[in-house]
């Protein structure tokens, strides 16, 4: 029997959706990408879906879908974003699970608690909701029930494991130092440490209500080497460390999925190398996943766990409620005493949310608890909101009452989202993660009062005021709430700027986000905005004031799109003017000693025409453009991005565009442009007869298939 190897990747990003618009707004720190989800998709999630494997000459020989070979879990909120914004990568992730299911009989994908909340710190209700929504999301996306579930930060206690078992989850993964004691079947418990624990087998953890769940404790030393010892710098070293001194049983590691490409560039190639070695049966090793191994080797030994522990805090779960000393290490002198009031304020809000939902929800739903538990079907897209309401609401509700029912459900969802672990993980309360958590709380507070609940904002802020920023002395929790959080609440007036600036093809001033449909109309009374909030089914109409809105947060989205459109417009105009000058470029001297300086204003258009217009510029003009591109990095990056976008479109029809694409790539290199052509490589590699595009393959560093 071959030695079994399992590499698990935990893929997660903090919830970034604006709680009103249900979309991710621009995040400047993620530049040049729109936001961090987009940036890490480009650096990690997509490269893992098309990981490069090289031949002996250093050419790309195969594109490996690593998700078909590694065990993995994705946060539901991240998958929801990917489904809309990165559909090709999302499809490869789902395909990876399907391929592993066909190969092994069990899929590679695990579920993950819905909002990445620290489960030992959650109420029993919240534990059950996080698990139930995660199961519903997983079933909707992967078309099967999950065998295992990843716990945020592997934070665990027995009530959390009980919540998993009640939902039908068979196993989870923990850090080796979370094991307290083990015993062989029929034996006595003996204390263990990370060094003495046998991690090659699953263990059975007995639960108070008579149930049990299996637990895998991962190999701590090798997992840490991936995260902190640059093990992914070499595929061969990675393989040797994974398979050296194989003890029999299951060798397995658990890692942040972002290690493969985001934390360590080209880490996905090291993983692809390991996958290939295992596919070839090197050293008698075969890759598997946890569900497959558990089916063949059910847990017989038992384990006791250290409760209220995690994989990323040596103090248990203190990182998510106190200044325990754990942070990212960027500012060792900063204090994290703000963690306690942040958690206390959110607990304060959740108490009133739960109480109000139970009381008010009873008037709208046949079974308010069941409706809340099954709301995950709506969040996953498995059921429309209208169908859900028809199924769960009592008959004869007025329109306003159905709106309140929607508000109550959204109130619960956002108060849960505020507990995502990342809000406490780092070292400063004004980072984007705590602010996002508080923004969800802001919306939940509004929904609480809108549905007739108590106005508890003053009490919430009183608790939060004990939080203190490390950046500014005058920023306590109350100041942060008033100056950084509450202004995030949008108005139709400011959102209308988007519709006004970007009318649709028929000229109507309309805009749409997942959370809002908006239309602006001119009338005798003035300009009027009408909005429909999709999550609550509320309609809103306002008369717009004269002049622009003055808040900046939502105008950033407008300015981003306007700048993109203006960039393209200016490039088109520069290209037009450069075309007029084109017949005069040969011997162009303007009577000056350094004639090319006068071409600088038209340089973008000259570059674009050279790339796509088949121009034959004189050597001195090409030399000038090389120098200009080198000296203007930002403009070069813009032109490279636009050229890569155009080239990718061309690659979708190689029959018609192979020669033109080959010429484009060659010309970009003559101008010293550094374009990766990553997606073009993917498209060409997918061509079954790419050998007919030999010159293009050579330019893209792709191997040719054997005839």
Query: What's the story with the biggest beta sheet?
Result: 6 strands, parallel
* Overall radius of gyration: 28 Å
Total E-strand runs: 18
The tally of domains stands at 4
**Global outline:** globular
Terminal residue distance: 36 Å
| CATH C-level of the largest domain | Alpha Beta
Helix content: 40-55%
How many individual helices?
Answer: 26
Low-pLDDT residue intervals, each spanning 5 or more residues: none
CATH topology of the largest domain: 7-stranded beta/alpha barrel
Name the beta content range: 5-15%
The overall pLDDT average reads 93
Which architecture of the largest domain does the CATH hierarchy give at level 2?
Alpha-Beta Barrel
Q: What class would the helix/strand composition place it in?
A: alpha/beta
């Amino acid at each position: 029997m071959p030695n079994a190897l399992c590499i698990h990747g935990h893929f997660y990003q903090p919830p970034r959706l604006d709680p009103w618009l249900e979309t991710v707004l621009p995040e400047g720190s993620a530049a040049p990408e729109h936001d961090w989800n987009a940036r890490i998709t480009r650096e990690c999630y997509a490269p893992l879906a098309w990981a490069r494997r090289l031949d002996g000459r250093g050419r790309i020989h195969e594109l490996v879908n690593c998700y078909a070979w590694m065990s993995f879990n994705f946060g539901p909120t991240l998958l929801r974003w990917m489904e809309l914004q990165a559909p090709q990568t999302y499809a490869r992730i789902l395909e990876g699970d399907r391929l592993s299911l066909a190969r092994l009989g069990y899929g590679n994908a695990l579920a993950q608690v819905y909002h990445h909340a620290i489960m030992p710190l959650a109420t029993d209700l919240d534990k059950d909701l996080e698990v139930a929504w995660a199961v519903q999301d997983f079933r909707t996306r992967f078309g099967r029930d999950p065998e295992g579930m990843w716990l945020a930060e592997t934070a665990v206690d027995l009530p959390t494991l009980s919540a998993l078992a009640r939902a039908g989850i068979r196993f989870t993964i923990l850090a080796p130092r979370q094991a307290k004691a083990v015993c062989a079947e029929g034996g006595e418990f003996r204390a263990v440490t990370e060094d003495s624990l046998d991690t090659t087998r699953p263990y059975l953890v007995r639960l108070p209500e008579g149930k049990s769940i299996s637990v895998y404790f991962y190999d701590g030393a090798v997992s840490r080497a991936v995260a902190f010892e640059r093990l992914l710098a070499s595929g061969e070293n990675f393989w040797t460390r994974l398979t050296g001194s194989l003890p029999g049983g299951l060798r397995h590691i658990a890692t942040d999925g972002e290690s493969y490409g985001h934390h360590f560039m080209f880490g996905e190639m090291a993983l692809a190398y390991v996958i290939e070695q295992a596919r070839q049966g090197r050293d008698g090793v075969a890759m598997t996943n946890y569900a497959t191994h558990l089916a063949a080797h059910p847990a017989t030994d038992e384990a006791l766990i250290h409760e209220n522990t995690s994989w990323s805090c040596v103090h248990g779960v203190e990182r998510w409620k106190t200044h325990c000393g754990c942070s990212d290490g960027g500012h060792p002198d900063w204090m994290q005493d703000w963690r306690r009031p942040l958690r206390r304020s959110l607990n304060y809000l959740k108490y009133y949310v739960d109480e109000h939902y139970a009381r008010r929800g009873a008037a709208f739903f046949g079974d308010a608890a069941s409706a809340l538990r099954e709301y995950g079907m709506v969040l996953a897209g498995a059921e429309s909101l209208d169908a859900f309401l028809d199924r769960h609401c009592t008959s004869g509700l007025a329109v306003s009452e159905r709106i309140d029912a929607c508000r109550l459900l959204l109130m619960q969802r956002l108060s849960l989202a505020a507990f995502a672990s990342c809000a406490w993980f780092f070292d400063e309360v004004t980072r984007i993660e705590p602010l996002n958590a508080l923004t969800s709380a802001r919306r939940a507070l509004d929904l609480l009062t809108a549905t007739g609940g108590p106005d508890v904002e003053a009490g919430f802020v009183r608790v939060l005021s004990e939080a203190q920023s490390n950046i500014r002395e005058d920023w306590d929790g109350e100041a942060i709430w008033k100056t950084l959080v509450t202004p995030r609440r949008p108005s139709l007036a400011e959102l209308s700027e988007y519709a006004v600036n970007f009318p649709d093809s028929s000229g109507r001033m309309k805009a749409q986000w997942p959370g809002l449909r908006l239309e602006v109309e001119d009338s005798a009374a003035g300009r009027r905005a009408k909005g429909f909030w999709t999550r609550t089914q509320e309609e809103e109409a306002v008369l717009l004031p004269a002049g622009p809105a003055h808040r900046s947060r939502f105008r950033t989205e407008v300015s981003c799109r306007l700048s993109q459109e203006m960039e393209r417009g200016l490039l088109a105009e520069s290209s037009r003017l450069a075309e007029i000058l084109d017949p005069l470029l040969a011997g162009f001297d303007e009577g000056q000693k350094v004639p090319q300086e006068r071409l600088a204003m038209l340089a973008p258009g000259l570059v674009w025409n050279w790339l796509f217009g088949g121009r034959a510029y004189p050597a001195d003009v090409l030399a000038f453009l090389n120098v200009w591109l080198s000296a203007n990095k930002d403009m070069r990056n813009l032109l490279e991005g636009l050229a890569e976008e155009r080239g990718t479109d061309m690659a979708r029809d190689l029959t018609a565009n192979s020669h033109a694409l080959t010429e484009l790539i060659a010309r970009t290199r003559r101008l010293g442009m550094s374009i990766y052509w990553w997606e073009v490589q993917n498209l060409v590699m997918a061509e079954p007869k790419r050998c007919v595009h030999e010159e293009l393959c050579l330019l893209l560093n792709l191997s040719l298939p054997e005839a």
